[in-house]
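Bench log. Compound arrived from synthesis this morning; before running ITC I wanted a structural hypothesis for how zinc ion sits in the protein. Inputs:
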Amino acid sequence: LIEAVNAREILDSRGNPTVEVEVLLDDGVVQRAAVPSGASTGAFEAYELRDGDKSRYGGKGVLKAVDAVIDELGPAIEGVDASEQRIIDEILIETDGTENKSRTGANAILGVSLAVAKAAADSADLPLFRYVGGPNAHVLPVPLFNVINGGEHADNGIDMQEFFLAPIGASTFAEALRWGAETYHVLKGELKAAGFATGLGDEGGFAPDLPSNREGLDFLVKAIEKAGFTPGSDIALGLDVAATEFFNDGVYRLDNKDWTAAELTDYYVGLVDAYPIVTIEDALAEDDWDSWKALTDALGAKVQLVGDDLFVTNPERLARGIDLGVANSLLVKVNQIGTLSETLDAVDLAHRSGYTTMFSHRSGETEDTTIADLAVAVNSGQIKSGAPARSERVAKYNQLLRIEEELGDAAEFAGRSAFRRFKG
Ligand code: PGA
Ligand code: ZN
């Protein structure tokens, strides 16, 4: 039974405050969870409550959310069996009482929801992935390493937000991690040799001032080859365009030019022909549904089209996308929706509808590794947690190493199978 719930304000990887929650059970178990925070957030995400008091952290303090945990959310679940996750999440949602979790804050609610799950797992003496996923949780996800950062995550001129290395040809997660790290270091050397800066963006990738987005893909291909791998079969490429960020009044502004959605779609078709790209996220803006449909018709059989700002891990927005035939993959961010149960509902709906899922960190992260366990729990097959460098990114990858070791012979690395259906 839940005996007490505590919360505090801690710092995230960008040096901004965020919420950490601790749950104490009557058997003595204590577990904590920390909440991440985005920069290129979708308009339809659950509400992140910040104090707005300019005298602390430039208004970004989270003491109101911390108080909401201590004064309201915690007391509302005291005495409840910690393994009753759905009931607890229901209570949290009802205690908040708003549609988008804006009163107590989705950051407060998520912290409690995840800390409860971790405490229940600990109390049952199970690893989190096993507790949430049951006996069939065994698939290690392909890591999508964001090695070039642009958009809102870096102060360079690159419009696209994330350039991924996807080591689909590795035979284990540990091998995929090694391939990614080796290629990351080669990429640094290549950028340096070409006279570009090798400072890092928010997700640990390099943030060079490249003249075009295609140049980013060229550098990835070069680095993969120079590291001794084959682009495509060993290590494939991916993009998170985060197109909402450069969409205004019906116009996309990319590479210093104005594009219609149709022109941008043709551009993506050309990229997929020219590069071994297996996944493109948020290729178009979050409310450009008709253009998304046309893009899916043009490219959906060949490549994974991921909805992030488009779906915001929200079962209702995902259901609309499924009905319309928009995108074919769901990006899963626990803080976009705010409870574990709703996150699992979104994943279930995606998988039942033939959509793939990719678990995701946020650009503002902490040392919390919950998403690594969740990705294995649901056999997602894909996770993005930034570059294979910087501790808040690597913490998730390191946790996946531990899970792979713990699963032993039962572990299966998703590899190419994670993307196979798009190769028709
Ligand atoms: P964010 O970016 O965490 O800044 O929203 C991540 C993403 O767009 O996938
Ligand atoms: Zn995204």
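What the model suggests: The mean pLDDT is 97. The pocket of zinc ion (ligand 2) is lined by residues 240, 242, 281-282, 308 (CB under 6 Å).
ITC booked for Thursday regardless.
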